[in-house]
Write a structure and sequence with these properties.
The chain has 458 residues and is of the alpha+beta class. The chain folds into 3 domains: 259 residues, Spore Coat Polysaccharide Biosynthesis Protein SpsA, Chain A (Alpha-Beta Complex), CATH 3.90.550; 58 residues, no CATH class; 110 residues, Jelly Rolls (Sandwich). The strands form 8 sheets. It has a 6-stranded antiparallel beta sheet with strand order 21-22-23-30-25-28. Strands 8-12-9-11-13 form a 5-stranded mixed beta barrel, surrounded by 4 helices. Helix 3 crosses helix 7. The model has no long low-confidence stretch (mean pLDDT 92).
């Protein structure tokens, strides 16, 4: 069995810490067994490793999140989506990758799950049972449903067929009758009385099921061809495109701990501390959390049931029960990410100006981890000036090599090939000037330092 973890999302519900590049699963606000902060995706991958499933797992993500995945998980297998669409295109692309790149047999089972569930280890043991469920029932799809603890209005429900309960080696299984999306509280209670389960977004199927569907719809089944036609795939959820049309679906209940940490009120319930970052919360403030990513202190005085979150992207002060509405508040607000993690380190935007004539100036503080490098690249619409603040490194400009130290200034003209590598942790200020200060203006030539050195004139 192969597992595919879907990593997407627009980063709105946990604004201002999350953005289009750093979605909620990358926020380091949970605590691992070593008492260090970890993100949701790091927690999930650690749990997969503990139950022996990480070696057969892949992460499906868009280009914008690929470097964040590499930064937090290292060299895990990544299936890259050309653009963000929806869960059906993402799963279809992953299926073609497993089929044509990995060489997976059509008779093997694929399990799809979100990258950010907050669960205990038993959940992943339950996932390990899905292969046997598919093999034994011959179902098109096998799902995991969470036994509800209250009549929630924000979750979808899986409604089983009456008297369809069976067991396969102590694994409880029901045939699925239908699905109900986000019912009222009263309707949710009725569904629970009928043994309905929360839909936690876990699907298992034989690879042949999706590959055959793609062939029927006239889509390619080779990964490279599918990636080129990715924008032609229906921008639909997997539930709408596949699940609702399947003839034979089964579900196995999960009774352990499960929670969707998709909003500030649910996330803070699982945090081990009420404060991260500089600041003070007054003793008279009850059930209040402060998460501060800025270098200035934030003081919260006399506020109960409140979340205060600050980052270079903005400042949020919200009553906890109101926090799920933040996505609607931000739907018309467009802003470039002001902080990003990359495979080589991170950067923070210090200042950005766009002038009437189209001229732009962007200032970043970049932290490059020891023995890491940025790609050998060039830009067509901007120049860059870098000033080294701390650490030592190596710099290549148009195949010319030099070492750099604090106080050095590097001038990178438009079209110049360049890269920098940190010998020790390296910090520098980068000022970009041009007409298009985006990642689309980066032409990457080589990624690995060994490849870059082959270009150097010694």
């Amino acid at each position: 069995m192969k597992l595919v973890l879907l990593s997407g999302g627009s980063g709105k519900r946990l604004w201002p810490l999350s953005n289009d590049s750093r979605s909620k699963q990358f926020l380091k606000m949970l605590v691992n067994p070593e008492k260090q902060l970890e993100s949701m995706v790091q927690r999930v991958w650690r749990q997969l490793d503990q139950v022996g499933l990480s070696d057969s797992s892949y992460v499906a993500t868009g280009k914008a999140q690929m470097e964040m995945i590499q930064s937090q998980l290292g060299g895990v297998p990544v299936i890259v989506e050309p653009e963000r669409r929806d869960t059906f295109p993402a799963i279809a692309l992953a299926a073609t990758y497993l089929y044509s790149i990995v060489g997976m047999s059509l008779n093997e089972v694929v399990t799809i799950l979100p990258v950010d569930p907050y669960v205990d280890e038993a959940f992943f043991q339950k996932i390990g049972e899905l292969e046997q469920v598919i093999e034994s029932t011959k179902a098109d799809l096998a799902l995991i449903g969470v036994k509800p603890t209250y009549p929630s209005e924000k979750y979808g429900y899986i409604v089983p067929q009456t008297n369809s309960q069976t067991f396969i080696e102590q694994t409880e299984i029901f045939h699925v009758n239908h699905f109900a999306e986000k019912p009222t509280e009263a309707k949710a209670q009725e569904l629970i009385d009928r043994q309905a389960l929360w839909n936690c977004g876990v699907f298992a199927f034989k690879l042949d099921y999706i590959i055959s569907y793609l062939i029927e719809q006239g889509f390619p089944i080779q990964y490279e061809a599918m990636a080129k036609q990715y924008d032609k795939l229906p921008k639909n959820s997997f539930d709408y495109e596949i699940v609702e049309k399947a003839q034979h679906i089964v579900v196995t209940p999960y009774e352990g701990y499960w929670k969707d940490l998709g909003t500030w009120n649910t996330l803070t319930e699982e945090m081990d501390t009420d404060q991260i970052g500089k600041g003070l919360i007054s003793p008279c403030s009850k059930n209040t959390h402060l998460i501060n990513e800025l270098d200035i202190p934030v003081v919260v005085l006399g506020l109960d049931n409140v979340v205060v979150a600050t980052s270079p992207d903005g400042i949020l002060v919200t009553e906890k029960n109101a926090s799920p509405r933040i996505k609607d508040m931000l739907k018309n607000m467009e802003q470039r990410p002001m902080y990003e993690e990359r495979r080589w380190g991170s950067y923070r935007v210090l200042d950005y100006k766009k002038y009437r004539e189209g001229h732009e100036v962007l200032t970043k503080r970049i932290c490059l981890r020891a023995r890491k490098n940025v790609s050998y690249q060039l830009h067509l619409k901007r120049t860059e000036i870098c000033t080294i603040l701390s650490g030592e490194g190596e710099f290549i400009l148009n195949e010319q090599y030099r070492k750099v130290k604090p106080g050095d200034t590097l001038h990178i003209p438009t079209g110049a090939r360049h890269s920098i590598r940190a010998l020790t942790d390296l910090e520098y200020i980068e000022v970009q000037t041009g007409t298009e200060l985006t990642e689309e203006d980066s032409v990457r030539l080589h990624a690995e330092w060994s490849e870059i050195l082959e270009q150097v004139r010694l």
